[in-house]
Amino acid sequence: MVSVAEQDFHLEVCESGLENQKVANADLDDDQKPKRTGNVWTASAHIITAIIGSGVLSLAWGVAQLGWVAGVTTLMVFSGITLYTSNLLADCYRSPDPVTGRRNYSYMEAVKNNLGGKMYMACGMVQYVNLSGMIIGYTITASISMAAIQKSDCFHKRGHEAPCKFSHNPYMIGLGILEIFLSQIPNFHNLSMLSIVAAIMSFGYASIGMGLGLAKILSGQGKRTSLTGLEVGIDLSAAEKTWRMFRAFGDIAFAYTYSQILIEIQDTLKSSPPENKVMEKANMIGVSVTTTFYMMCGCFGYAAFGNHAPGNMLTGFGFFEPFWLVDLANVCIVVHLVGAYQVFSQPVYSALESWAARTWPKSKFVTGEYSINIGIAKKYRFNINFLRLTWRTIFVIMATLLAMVLPFFNDVLAFLGALGYWPLTVYFPIQMYIAQKKIRWWSSRWCGLQLINLVCLLVALAAACGSIQGLSRAVSVYKPFKVED
């Protein structure tokens, strides 16, 4: 027989165990992973870091190719489509129900659970090629900005007509070395501070570019503009203008690309309130802030430089003075792109590492985490994983080498925009939303969604053709590893 005292003791032990289990569960989300702590502001910072990138610097050139009417309209249309389809995608974070369903931890997983295996494979190919291309594009852009600082100082000392020529390659190598160290940040959940700093930097250089453009306009030095943009004449054939317009569509599309990492951003949010509702607010904040900056940078830049706006507003030397302010803007660009590089590379890193962990779950090389204490008092701890160390280092080296071979700013941006905008920002979110909501074929809602799909596909095809034509011309006269003008 069990005594009353023993019964009370066992009851206390059980209650203590239940309390401990409740405490343990309080630290975990519904998927038994560590509780997420993200909110609308951290998500907005990630979005702004991802969107306001190198693309903002080409918007004056893009508006110059299209003119006031088509340029401003294109910016607004891409903004509206991006916001709408991003909200559709936010509802696909959980399946089948957007509030209580199972979590999808990546864009590809959302596609797989909503559209099936074939679409999953197609999405993976497009997404990871696009993300890798973005990383290469950011490496190119950051090196151009670093070289622009050196050029700016040279022009200030020797005059604006001085033959200041510098190679971008040392800067790409230096950036690659830095990114090797930063790539050891384990995952998206540890990137919040880097994203906030990068977002602040993006505001910094966009504001400087915008301010310099406005100052040039107010001083009466603005150049001639037109409703239709760059005009056909002796120096420009109708065919070349068409190609340039197509490339401008690609540049503007690139400037709004962030959907391929939206699910990963949403996976950092707290589960209450519902992630899709918080993400919709973050989308609204991110896209609205971005569009405001884009409109001002594109329009002020076009008004300042006219139909011959440079391809890169801060590194194309439309502005020479004050040289220190141009230098500061380019420093902001570099710091921002260092953070954006990590935001876009994390899904690529995670894809291979997750596959390796599933394939070799007992391998110490793949799954082992080794702690290193940092500092004199050994207060800080840093974890090293050998797969993460070797694979991410190799990836950064390959991206750097490819960037050194292909330094074509505007044409690369246009091609990346054409490659990624339609399938990742428009097609897959719309198809997943249709599948999740079981929208009937040929209903008014279905027809409206497919109309958006078709229009964006046609724009993407035009942008791809324009960018390929521009790249072919650039490649025909390019010599690898030469000193840049």
UniProtKB/TrEMBL annotation:
GO cellular component term of the entry, any: plasma membrane
Subcellular location: Cell membrane
Molecular function as annotated in GO: symporter activity
Pfam families: Aa_trans
Transmembrane segments annotated in the record for this chain: 40-61, 68-90, 128-149, 194-215, 282-303, 323-344, 389-406, 412-430, 451-471
Main location: membrane
Residue span, Amino acid transporter transmembrane domain: 37-471
Protein keywords: Amino-acid transport, Cell membrane, Membrane, Symport, Transmembrane, Transmembrane helix, Transport
GO biological-process terms attached to the record: amino acid transport
Family: Belongs to the amino acid/polyamine transporter 2 family. Amino acid/auxin permease (AAAP) (TC 2.A.18.2) subfamily.
Protein name: Amino acid transporter transmembrane domain-containing protein
Originating species: Ilex paraguariensis
